[in-house]
Amino acid sequence: MFQPRPAETGSFPFPVRVQHDRPANEFRLVADIYPTQNDDLTVHVGTNRVRLAVASGDAVFERTIAPLPSRRVFGDDHRGAYNNGVLTLTLETRVGIR
């Protein structure tokens, strides 16, 4: 079943929502980072975590998200889009060894 997680806030001033759809083997991250420009955004995807970095003026805001349950890792299939201040990442998940 598709189980959304609540938006998370903190020192990263942009709302982020993550969802893991285990039956579809898919993880989705949506971040509202308006008014950030595309060049001010950095995304790194590791085996089991995603790191976002947003440059805004003289500051850089970073957020690392490790949302996957035990034994799940990100696969090779991934898509990303940035449109009108909204970043959407869709990543394949699979059972793997960390």
TrEMBL record:
It comes from the Archaea. This is Hsp20/alpha crystallin family protein. It comes from Natronorubrum daqingense. The lineage of its organism: Archaea, Methanobacteriati, Methanobacteriota, Stenosarchaea group, Halobacteria.
